[in-house]
Amino acid sequence: PDTISDNDLSLAEVSGEAGTLVYFICNHCPYVLYVIEELVQLANDYKQKGIGTVAISSNDVIKYEVDSPENMKAFAASSGFSFPYLYDESQEVARAYAAACTPDLYLFDAAGKLYYRGRLDANRPGSGREPDGADLRDALDDLLSGRPRPEKQYPSAGCNLKWK
User: Fold this and answer.
1) Pick from 112, 139, 157: nearest CA to 12
2) What is the arithmetic mean of pLDDT over 65-92?
3) How far apart are CA 151 and CA 18, in angstroms?
4) Spatial separation of the C-alpha atoms in residues 138 and 103, rounded to whole Å
5) Do the Cβ atoms of 53 and 9 come closer than 8 Å?
6) What is the mean pLDDT of residues 98-117?
7) pLDDT level of residue 41 (50, 70, 90 thresholds)
8) Cα–chain-centroid distance for residue 44?
């Protein structure tokens, strides 16, 4: 279910013609809060280039009420989401993707094949630098230009998913 539209959405409905970004995020993680503006800007920048974007929260909302669907809707509105924010209550989607942290970022090509899984950029909270999305933007540009997937892919860093 999409917490913004209150509709159930499938992968086909959120996929873009050229590829799809999948963000595993949550409302409270300091790493997500640090990068959320860049994630939203990146989705907006690449939407016109045929990239669909979807965010998913899979955290246990019993232990982390701040990540509840109601709070997800408010977080999406205050952050200016232009893409769906899905609630993975069963955590089956996170397990299927082997998502490990928030944010955990995936880029799939037009055929649905994983092209990039990794960090947004080398900046971290407390580094004194603002997120610039360099690594993910490079991967997106490579995908759109028909270049091979990046050989070196650095893992995402953030808070662990909050499993039930």
Assistant:
1) 112
2) 98
3) 20
4) 18
5) no
6) 97
7) very high
8) 13
For the beta carbon of residue 71, count every other beta carbon within 10 angstroms. Answer: 18
What tokens appear for 71 in the block? 């709070």
Question: What is the Cα–Cα distance from 52 to 17, expressed in whole angstroms?
Answer: 8
Q: Which two tokens stand for residue 84?
A: 């769906």
Q: Which of 49, 64, 69, 67 is nearest to 144 (CA)?
A: 49
What CA–CA distance (Å, rounded) separates 112 from 63? 33
> Helix/strand/coil (H, E, C) string of the chain?
CECCCCCCCCHHHHCCCCEEEEEECCCCCHHHHHHHHHHHHHHHHHHCCCEEEEEEECCCCCCCHHHCHHHHHHHHHHHCCCCCEEECCCCHHHHHHCCCEECEEEEEECCCCEEEEECCCCCCCCCCCCCCCHHHHHHHHHHHCCCCCCCCCCCCCCEECCCC
